[in-house]
Amino acid sequence: MKKIITIAAALGLMASMGTAAFADSASTTDSTSSTTSVTGTSETVAEPTKLVPEPIISAGEEVTQPTVPLVLTVNTPFYFEPGGKVASVLAPQVVSTTGNRVGSLLGEWVEVYTWLGTAWILVK
C-alpha cells in the first residue's frame, strides 16, 4: 500500500513539473493610470430611523403553556406511536409530557419524554 502511494505521489509530482515546463512565460504590460476628481456632498445622519418601536417583545410577554406532569402509579407500557407495538414499560414515577395529546375510543394518548426519546402512553 505504501509503494502505491509513493508511486502515485511521484507521478503527480512529475505531471505538475511537466505542466510547468510547457506553460507560457509571464508577460508584463505597461499601464498608465489617470486620476479623476469627483465633487459632491455627503450627509451624516446622527440617529437612524426606527422602523419598528423597540423592543418588539418585552420581558414577561411571551406565552408559555406549561405541560402537566403525568403520575404513573403502576407499570405502564409505552409506544413509539399511538396504537403501535409496545416499546417498553415504565415503572411507577412522575413523567414529563410534551403537550401533544391524541384522543381515541380507548382513552387519550399522551406523548411523554423517556430515556429512549419521546413515546406515547395510553391514559384511560
| Strand segment tally | 7
- CATH topology of the domain at 70-123, which one? SH3 type barrels
Rg computed from alpha carbons, rounded to a whole number of angstroms: 36 Å
Element order: H for helix, E for strand: HEEEEEEE
How many angstroms separate the termini? 65 Å
Strand order of the largest sheet: 5-6-7
Number of helices: 1
Largest sheet: 3 strands, antiparallel
Organism: Paenibacillus rhizosphaerae
Keywords: Signal
Region (Disordered): 26-45
Signal peptide: 1-23
In short:
With about 120 residues, the chain is α+β, with helices and mostly antiparallel strands. The protein is built from one helix and seven strands.
Describe this structure in words.
The chain has 124 residues and is of the alpha+beta class. It has a domain at 70-123: SH3 type barrels. Helices cover 16% and strands 29% of the residues. A hairpin with a 4-residue loop joins strand 5 and strand 6 (108-114). The longest helix has 20 residues, at 2-21. Residues 26-45 are annotated as: Disordered. This is SH3b domain-containing protein. Keywords: Signal. Residues 1-23 form the signal peptide.
